[in-house]
Predict the 3D structure of the following.
Amino acid sequence: MSFNRRLGTTVCCLAALCLSTAKAAAAAPGGDPAIPNIFTPASTPADSVYHLSLFVLEVCAVIFIVVFSLLAYCVVKFRQRASDDGREPPQIYGSNQMELAWTVIPVLIVVVLFLATARVIHAVEDASFPPNAIEVTAVGHQFWWEFRYPQQAFITANELHVPVSEAKEPTPTHITLLSADTDHSFWVPMLAGKTDLIPNRTNSMWIDPHETGTYVGQCAQYCGVQHAKMLLRVVVESRADFDKWIAGQRAPAQVADSVAKGRQIFETTACVNCHAIAGTDAKGKFGPDLTHLMSRETIAAGAALNNRENLRLWVKDPEAMKPGSLMPAMQLPDQDLNALTDYLVSLR
Amino acid sequence: MSNAESVLRPMPVSAAREDAKPFFDQVHEWIVTVDHKKLGLMYILYGILFLVIAGLEATVMRIQLAIPHNHFVSPQVFNQLFTMHGTTMVFLVGMPLLFGFANYLAPLMIGARDMAFPRLNAFSFWMSALGGIILYFSFLGGPGLYGAGSAPDVGWFAYAPLTSQAFSPGHSTDYWIIGLLVSGVGSIGTALNIVTTVLCMRCPGMTLGRMPLFAWLNLVMSAMVLIVISPLTAAQIMLLLDRYLGAHFFDTQAGGSAVIWMHFFWIFGHPEVYVLIIPGFAIASEIIPVFSRKPIFGYSIMVAATVAIGFVSLGVWAHHMFTIGMTSYANAFFVASTMAVGVPTGIKIFNWLGTMWGGKIRLTIPMLFCIGFLFQFLIAGLTGIMLAAAPFDWQLGNSYFVVAHFHYVLIGGLVFTIFAALYYWYPKVTGRMWNETLGKWHFWLFLIGFHLTFDFMHIPGVLGMPRRIYTYEPGRGWELWNMIVSIGVIFQIVGILFWVVNVVWSYLKGKPAGNDPWDAWTLEWATSSPPPEYNFAKIPVVRSRRPLWDLKHPEDPDWKYE
């Protein structure tokens, strides 16, 4: 079995082997996110899939070796030689025994693979959750992610924060998946397989990350022009950090007099049609909630790092950063643009 | 049956190159023709024309994806390119090429003088041609009133609600719908024709059990086309109703269902893959025996396996939908049905190997392409088993792994057999032999290019790269693989150029091929190269699956054993 396992991995998990360091990188919090390799799972659903895939890969590797050897043997052994006498080989029309054999054996292989697969489907899809599970609702938008935390009553975007799930006290996160417009798909390979977000339909999935760190993924169902830049980050934190983050998100938006002009610009332009900032008149639902904008590492669904220059460019000319995004250019004079950027940067 | 020999005596080599007639008369003759061979050739040329177009679209995409954050094309253009590439390859390359081969070869192989309905045949071809023209006219006419982009950009499976007026203003999606509707009419006509021809037009003595596998497999393929084009056509009409008459089948904003579109599309879309690959099997089942110098191993089980694939493939469509949140029971059912298809497919691979076993394999160009097909189809089947395991698909579905998998099926499987067929029957169609050296260059360059591109394409999928993205982030481990994938394209293009040169050069300068250059066994080799308009001066009479073997080996004829 262990030989088999090595065989399967060697032949087929080329990627896993090439990137065997990825797992170590995943554990390092704060560093660059790990390569989202499906063979370095960090959560139970991804782990179940990983073990099933190793089994399937082993079976496939054995089949490949057998059939490929037969093919290679045929081509080498039975090719016509230069010294050929020109006579036709014996004419064989078939063999019932052999044909029966290569019908029955594949049937048995299929039965085994099916049973192994059905078990994992059941384990992942029909899992039950402890009462302390975190509830999140993810809503897909063209081209960004809305994350609602109904238990804590706040909304954020693009970067999902969840607590690490320790073996002694499992804290899985149950994610309800909705769509505001077209089909999307939630895929963070190291945490779980993908599940689609489909308008008029409620889907769900769950993750229970074992290690802290940032896990990247992105929309995996073509959803329009900027499907490519609908990136996802899942920040897995210790329970204490997570609680702190929750508290920060629930707090009302910062109000600073130094940015009153920017705030006034925000509240009197079309910004408020799409964006919400808790405690102000901005109650738009079409774009990301900006109450704690600066608590996020990226903007435009991961298209750029969240800093002053990028924010300013994003407000000034979204097409330059993410062509085809639904954010319009606000055509503000430079002075107003700077004041508005100041205000946005104050939203910690 | 003593007259079988006289009937099958090869006819004199025809010098029939119609260069005597004025050019416009020739063109006119091709346009109004109802001859199955001319129509078959037009289907094939039409398929090759679009193969070149779709190949160029793919090349532009690979330039764009060679490095991260590339700006070679805009996201809008990229989305149009992958939509047009996929739609073109399936509807304007795969189906026409295969219909072309069936059209040209099936009547010859069953000893008939034409298809059952020659005028329907011409009608169907011109409908398919019109469908392609409508689809590509979108590049000019698509902006419509709204100026919202030209060619369709909704992906080849055009998931709702991206196709609704709200998300797809203008007319690009309408060109997609109507182009496919029209070419679908052509497909149904030709499928009907092939079914009728194979069932009703066989020469005396050719029972169903003596029919060449090529005819059998194309019969199954055509029957499948009749079943599966209908739901696609229905869905396209429903989508048109949604877009223009205020229906709400797929309009999710008014309570319609995006999932219903997926069901409609994939109950067409998955069997469609078998519609494409079964004629590939048909080609391999003719070429491998001839160049192994043995009859096909297990003829009956090959037919049975094909019919089984045809039936089972109608019940596997939702494996394209493992990620849409079906219940565990539904997922398990489609895992079982999908894996079950692997059994008859495996039988076929073993029977081809059984055919080669103990033979004297002639490594001609068509046989090299068939061996490439066997090797690649084996891998494609195994990655198919991986994707059939639903949880594995939750990870791999809609990633570059899937893109690599189905290109393995359709390029490594289908296109390799198509090249095999183009070489194998070229002497029959043109009366000339192609150049062996150019053919070898073509094969090896294309093989290397194929493996560079599609082997390494699996890896970014495993590393989380979804399909249909116009660019990607650096630092995710995808750069190297995407660069290798793009480099492979160069080899494929150069390989195909060798083929183009070979086709043209051989047509003008090739050695005369004679009627039966491969010492083959089916009826098309009993007539002249190219065959006369009436195919056979006298309708042949057969007693076995290999009438020409019987003729060449009167001391040891097949009919004694069958």
Summary: Confidence is low (pLDDT under 50) at residues 1-7, 12-16, 144-148 of chain B. DSSP finds 17 helices and no strands in chain B.
